[in-house]
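Holo prediction. Input below; ligand is zinc ion.
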Amino acid sequence: MSSILDLIKNWYNRFFGQTSLARNAEPLPEITPEVSIAKTPGLSCPVCAHRIVVSIESLLSGQDLQCPSCGLELSVDEDKSGGALEALSKLQNGLNQASKIKSENGV
Ligand SMILES: [Zn+2]
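Structure of the complex:
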């Protein structure tokens, strides 16, 4: 079974990592963060693939997650997930900044 850390890492990579790594041949358009903001944050359940909607704040608080479809429980081990949580904090900061820029631009 995938650990929640793998899910978080995949999720994080979807937001920023893969785009910049996979496409270093082309310059990235500046609107990249906008795409991720438009999506609801969440993880795909490793068992039933149901979308589990969760805020980054909830993950950072170490709250357990439960799949609303199959009832699978995912818990965040704060001791082992320091790196992932730190990455999420940065992600959250990035999203906050992006929303701020967005609202300042009146988009
Ligand atoms: Zn499920």
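The longest strand covers residues 42-44. That is the main takeaway for now.
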